[in-house]
Design goal:
- By secondary structure, the protein is an alpha+beta fold.
- The protein has one domain.
- About 20% of the residues lie in helices and about 35% in strands.
- The chain has a four-stranded antiparallel β-sheet, with helices on one face. It has a two-stranded antiparallel ribbon with strand order 1-6.
- About 15% of the residues are buried.
- The mean pLDDT is about 90.
Length: about 130
């Protein structure tokens, strides 16, 4: 996050404004289980892109460190339209690949509140620098 200009001080300010939560705990870790029964699969959405994370072991868990959005933060984000930060998404994908997952970066088109269409999938290769 420092590469993106996001400092701990800035995160604390955003929390004081009521936009994000969890800064005092140095972030939160979310654990994702599979969305299907046959193998591990999880889709992480971000501004028209999706990281499609898969693994042969359905029992595998995907852990992601993050800060949570408050209801105020969610409302603020709903007011804007944002471009995906593909470089950042690839860096997140690399962390998952280095933990043994297969990850594809795809375009995401929302169909309705619970479904979307994936296209233009590109598999992320392991990056030795991560």
């Amino acid at each position: 996050m420092a590469k993106e200009g996001i400092t701990f001080s800035r995160l604390l300010s955003l929390q004081e404004l009521g936009v994000i939560v969890g800064v005092e705990a140095i972030g939160m870790t979310r654990e994702f289980s599979s969305t299907i029964e046959e193998s591990f699969q999880q889709a992480l959405l971000s501004n028209g892109k999706v990281l499609l994370v898969t693994h042969a072991d359905v029992e595998k868990k995907l852990e992601l460190s993050s800060y949570g959005l408050s209801s105020v933060g969610e409302e603020i984000l709903s007011l804007g339209s944002f471009q995906p930060n593909q470089e950042y998404l690839v860096s997140i994908a690399n962390k998952f690949v280095n933990k043994g997952f297969t990850v594809k970066l795809c375009d995401w088109t929302k169909v309705d509140e619970k479904r979307g269409r994936i296209s233009n999938a590109v598999e992320i290769e392991a990056d030795a620098q991560q």
